[in-house]
Amino acid sequence: MTGPVAPDQGVPSSSGKPNGRAPVSGASRSGSGARSADLPHGNAVPGGTDEVPLLNIANILTVLRIALVPVFLAALFVGDGHDATWRLTATVVFAVAAITDRIDGQVARKYGLVTDFGKMADPIADKALIGAALVGLSMLGDLSWWVTVIIGVREIGITAVRFAVIRHGVIPAGRGGKVKTLVQTFAIGVYLCPLPTAVDPVAMGLMALAVLLTVYTGIDYVVQAVRLRRGVSAS
After folding, report:
1. For residue 181, which of 144, 149, 145, 218 has the smallest C-alpha distance?
2. pTM score, two decimals?
3. DSSP label at 22?
4. Angle at CA 41, nearest 5°, toward 36 and 43?
5. 56 DSSP 8-state letter
6. Most CB atoms closer than 10 Å: which of 11, 89, 182, 185?
7. In a 3-state reduction of DSSP, which class is residue 12?
8. Computed from CA positions of residues 62, 110, 181, 216, in that sequence, does the dihedral angle turn out positive or negative?
9. What is the mean pLDDT of each run of 10 residues along the chain (235 residues)?
10. What are phi and psi of 18, to 5 degrees?
11. What is the pLDDT at residue 10?
């Protein structure tokens, strides 16, 4: 069975043969629109922001990650903060929130759900989760405050830079930033989880690497922001 045809298709011409020419009319354009509607969110393409709805699964996961921050803190500070069961619970909540960071970015790129909101909210959600964990661990005496201060100042500073250059353009998280976040996440996870003291050197090594990556990527981001502003000023 063939599908419906446009009004001018299949009409015999003066020679008695069907006119095979496609009609140049609104029907053709509407057909094109119908095909584009079959794509994820209309004519959206992976990595684009045209006609992408703000309320999509990628952004929902990002907001969920932010919502899990107070849940994580509540579990971390139950009792004296060192109860093995609640520390394990806090670790699981932290891990779930961290996994959403991996998923929402992949979903956004694969299905063309990248939005400016997502580009801004995703790193903010990461900073809220990482910052809450670092401050919590320092308050409990499990992590030196100087580590929390260095990472915290970098993250707050970069967030301020993001907002300062947002009118010129959005700088998405780069590969170095993603590696930094991954190392931070693993290091914090090791500190959170009630593991034997024999694992302490591993945790300290991971955290030292996280601090180095934090400082390096922070400097790199500032350089990108300066180039962006100069490029806009020169144009």
Report:
1. 218
2. 0.69
3. P
4. 35
5. S
6. 185
7. strand
8. negative
9. 44 46 43 39 40 79 91 94 95 93 78 76 85 96 96 88 72 76 93 94 95 92 82 62
10. -60, 140
11. 45
Helix (H, G, I), strand (E, B) or coil at 136: helix
Which phi and psi (to 5°) does residue 210 adopt? -65, -40
Residue with tokens 């394990």: 88
Tell me the C-alpha distance between 38 and 100, whole Å.
27
Token pair in block for residue 181: 């976040």
Q: Where do runs of H (alpha helix) occur along 16-167? A: 26-37, 57-76, 84-110, 116-139, 145-164
- What does the alpha-carbon distance between residue 40 and residue 46 come to, in Å, rounded to a whole number? 9
Identity at 162, one-letter amino acid code: R
Specify the DSSP class assigned to residue 55. Answer: S
Name the one residue in this structure whose structure tokens are 């939005």: 115
Retrieve residue 62's tokens. 């990002």
Amino acid of residue 15:
S
* CB-neighbour burial class of residue 131 (10 A; exposed 0-12, middle 13-18, buried 19+): middle
Q: What is the pLDDT of residue 169?
A: 67
Amino acid identity at 98: A
Q: What is the spatial distance between Cα 20 and Cα 29, in angstroms, rounded to a whole number?
A: 18
